[in-house]
Amino acid sequence: MKLYYHSTSSASLRVLIFLSCRDVPKSTVNLVETGIEFDSRGIPIWTIPSDDEEFRKLKTNDYKALNPEGRVPLLLLEDGKKMTQTGAIIDLIDDLLDDPSPLVPDDTFLKAEMRRIQWIVAADTQPYQNIPFIIQAMGEWGMKKAEPIKHPLRKHFINREFSAIEKILESVSGKFCVGDSVSYADCFLIPQIRNALASDISLKRDFPNVNKVWENMLALPNVLNIFEEAGGIIQPIVVDEEKLKKYVE
Ligand SMILES: N[C@@H](CCC(=O)N[C@@H](CS)C(=O)NCC(=O)O)C(=O)O
């Protein structure tokens, strides 16, 4: 299998952290980092690398030829089938592996708590702080204030949803989101924290339980290594500032 991802993408990092924490052999899922270009508004657009087999088959760098959603990550199976959406990708890989996942709690209620945190990150937080959405809000809907990464709209949604997660963690967290073992909830939350830090969210002061999980996850050498290889523990900025300035003006 192949996973198309980008190192600046929080959704991509969910899957990379899952693969590593679940000990999926590197040969089972080959990682392909997409290229990156910027459209006329300065919004990042993913591209298929020219040395990738799919480029030869599709005869284009246009990533939408591979994934019409235009989003990373994407899982390509050996038989050519494709899967998108991180929750579906992770569940699919899990089902294809023989052993039951050590990242899913046995307890039915805790399993639901894990899913709850996954959904808050994936459905209620990430889409509203995703840079294309923020840039469009600035250019088309008049919300010109600030630079995109620290935009009040982005900060509002991160703060709002982290407040909810903080409350949930008060009752279900141990070292990690759900008790003392890493679960999918951590794979989802940690990359979102990386984005929050780029937006100057005050993690330690406002979200002590979220911060605890963050620190305990970073204490795992394999997780820290993923962030380091992806450009650090704070989300790198991926905007063409000049194009953006013209677009917003
Ligand atoms: N719900 C999707 C989110 C994927 C997503 O939004 N990926 C971002 C990067 S973190 C992306 O590719 N954005 C490009 C765009 O929205 O056009 C998932 O869970 O896979």
Taking all residues together, what is the mean pLDDT? 95
Indicate the overall shape. Answer: globular
According to CATH, the fold-level topology of the largest domain is Glutathione S-transferase Yfyf (Class Pi), Chain A, domain 2
SSE succession: EHEEEHEEHHHHHHHHH
Distance between the ends:
44 Å
Summarize the structure.
By secondary structure, this protein is an alpha+beta fold.
Write the layout of secondary structure elements.
Blueprint: E1 2-5, H1 10-21, E2 30-33, E3 35-38, E4 44-47, H2 53-58, E5 74-76, E6 82-84, H3 86-96, H4 108-129, H5 131-140, H6 152-172, H7 184-198, H8 203-206, H9 208-218, H10 221-229, H11 241-248
The chain binds glutathione.
How is this structure best described in words?
By secondary structure, this protein is α+β, with helices and mostly antiparallel strands. It has 2 domains: 2-96, Glutaredoxin; 108-248, Glutathione S-transferase Yfyf (Class Pi), Chain A, domain 2. The chain is 52% helix and 9% strand. The chain has 11 helices and 6 strands. The strands form 2 sheets. A 4-stranded mixed β-sheet has the order 2-1-5-6, covered by helices on one side. Strands 3-4 form a two-stranded antiparallel sheet. Helix 1 (10-21) packs antiparallel against helix 7, helix 1 packs antiparallel against helix 10 and helix 4 runs antiparallel to helix 6. The chain starts with a strand and ends with a helix. It binds glutathione.
